[in-house]
Amino acid sequence: MTGDISATAVSADGTMIAFSARGAGEPIIIIDGATAYPALNLADEELGRLLGETFRTYAYDRRGRGGSTDTAPYTIGRELEDLAALIGVAGGPVTVFGWSSGAVLALDAAAAGLPIKRLVLFEPPFVVDDSRLPLPADYVQRLDAAVADGRPGDAVELFLTAAAGLPAEAVGGMRQSDFWPVLEAVAPTIAYDGRIMGTTMSGRPLPRDRWAAISVPTLVLHGTGTFPFLVSAAQALADLLPTATLEPVKGEQHSAPADVLAGALREFARTGQPTA
């Protein structure tokens, strides 16, 4: 398959997964984090443009977002099946690049044995120490209840305050913005990422067994200007995985631009070695 396209892949449960593909060469699949999808995270398209001479990039709408459908009940296994369907389209094995909680889904996919040859992970949002408050123990349950009660805005607010760490007054202003309905539309999927994160935002060490099966080269990236807890998270993951290399990205934060990340991604996807 060549040329830039927008299409759908069919997951094992019949869910339609919308994706776009750009460029030519070895495949790279991009996984967004909570609430994000390519129409909102324009860096996905920019990465495809910057890498397009050497790689074919696939950016997709995770189930329940953008142009993708959804099928209840949710399980992490179904999201892995979505990714497997896309890898089938790409003709794997593939390099997978995951942003934020999308990085954690990428880890689960590699541990499950999907045909992944390399992982590039940008700031998985683990909380492994006391550098920030952990997630409330009932976080996922509160998200589910808000959506079930027809209060998607409350689910978004809980995510932005408890998970993303924004002050409540800032979120109050966001509720009045034109962008708020876009966030409410993906509110049912926020609990999906909560389930993927599991206990990894509890302030305790990462589980040693969850990703023990991973044997592929893994590049863990974090910005040097990011939140301290994300630096600790990246270091903890790099220490946990024998195949991982840690690479700080000078000056960047949790929303590093595509042109900054493209060089690191290009070199690692080509050689399996970091840029340094």
TrEMBL record:
Residues 46-255 form the AB hydrolase-1 domain. The keyword Hydrolase applies. Keywords: Hydrolase. Coiled coil: none annotated. Gene3D superfamilies: alpha/beta hydrolase. GO terms for molecular function: hydrolase activity. It holds the Pfam family Abhydrolase_6. It comes from the Bacteria. Signal peptide: none annotated. This is Alpha/beta hydrolase fold protein. The lineage of its organism: Bacteria, Bacillati, Actinomycetota, Actinomycetes, Micromonosporales.
